[in-house]
Amino acid sequence: MAKTKELSKDTRNKIVDLHQAGKTESAIGKQLGLKKSTVGAIIRKWKTYKTTDNLPRSGAPRKISPRGVKMFTRTVSKNPRTTRGDLLNDLQRAGTKVTKPKISNTLRRQGLKSCSARRVPLLKPVHVQARLKFAREHLDDPEEDWENVIWSDETKIELLGKNSTRRVWRTKNAELHPKNTIPTVKHGGGNIMLWGCFSAKGPRRLIRVKERMNGAMYREILSENLLPSARALKMKRGWVFQHDNDPKHTARTTKEWLRKKHFKVLVWPSQSPDLNPIENLWRELKVRVAQQQPQNITALEEICMEEWTKIPATVCENLVKTYRKRLTSVIANKGYITKY
Fold it and tell me: Where is the Sleeping Beauty transposase HTH domain (predicted)?
């Protein structure tokens, strides 16, 4: 049987008005072009409930009991990597047969959804403590101090990159909780490697590293690019150089070279890409490069160099101006990786 069209609220109210005016159900039906049974149903509903509005409908009973919902909500909260198949098997063993979409919908009503686990650096307790120490020590540093820092890093940009994913169940804004992330080690592959630096005044040198970088090559890059970048950026006296704790950066010979050149180096906590604003510039660069769709390594390098110079100085300025927020986020997140 075809489903009948629901009467509008105005029509239902008109039926009641005509009934109150003394008209019969047959007369009302003839006047409005409706069946007598339809008119009668509306009038009976009005007499019983004093309204013509649609009443709440109970719908089909839920297949998963409240106890079952609590059980697998607790399961995925404890282990976000639990799959729908795992939950399906648990429910079947308990005598409940449901589909995977039903499980997804039930978890979604509990504020949980299936998301790809974020890849973040592996943090050991010593890293967490070092990050907290850094954030607390520099929390009250004036904005001018961060404006006098040259930030640097290396990154690899892929020509055709593929990233594996893994899904987890999590609540909103919990994507960076350790249980919802996939720990990674820096530099997992790619096509070209770049070294770059910037300050609050804008991006500076960007260099392609064509061979496997070692300490000697790193010192050569700094020798040829760091001081010219500082001059171009018109850094104030006493400017500070930032780099992470990659073994090439912390090698005894590199430290000695930096000391002899009288470069002041920012003491840096390991495994802390979220504290380095250049990571945001790398992301910006990679988006710009992807939009250009380079077809070979030569084109990839050319586009990288071109797009790097196009990044507005205001972007760099804002990254440095809001640096205190990074520190407060690390403290609020108890030393674990934060959004950046």
Answer: 1-52
In sequence order, what DSSP letters do the residues of 189-229 get, joined into one string?
Answer: --SEEEEEEEETTEEEEEEEE-S---HHHHHHHHHHHHHHH
CA distance 116 to 165: 6
3-state secondary structure of 182: strand
Per-position DSSP letters for 105-121, written without gaps between them: HHHHHTT-EEEEPEEEE
Q: How many CA atoms lie within 13 A of 294 on its CB side?
A: 24
* Cβ pair 229, 205 in contact under 8 A: yes
Tokens of 308: 């790097």
Write the Ramachandran bin of 293: left for phi over 0, alpha for psi from -120 to 50, otherwise beta.
Answer: left
How much is the pTM?
0.69
CA distances from 61 to 58, 64, 93, 233, 340 (A): 8, 9, 20, 68, 44
Q: Which amino acid is at 52?
A: T
Q: Report helix, strand and coil shares of the chain as percent, to nearest 5.
A: 50, 15, 35
User: If the chain, 340 residues long, is cut into consecutive pieces of 10 residues, what is the mean pLDDT of each piece?
Assistant: 72 92 92 92 90 75 81 89 89 85 90 87 94 97 96 91 61 84 54 95 96 94 96 96 96 96 96 96 94 89 96 97 96 90
Number of Cβ within a 10 Å radius of residue 192: 17
The DSSP-derived string for 225-267 is: HHHHHHHHTTPPTT-EEE----HHHHSHHHHHHHHHTT-EE--
d(CA 249, CA 219): 9
CB 86 within 8 A of CB 80: no
**Phi, psi (degrees; rounded to nearest 5) at 65:** -70, 160
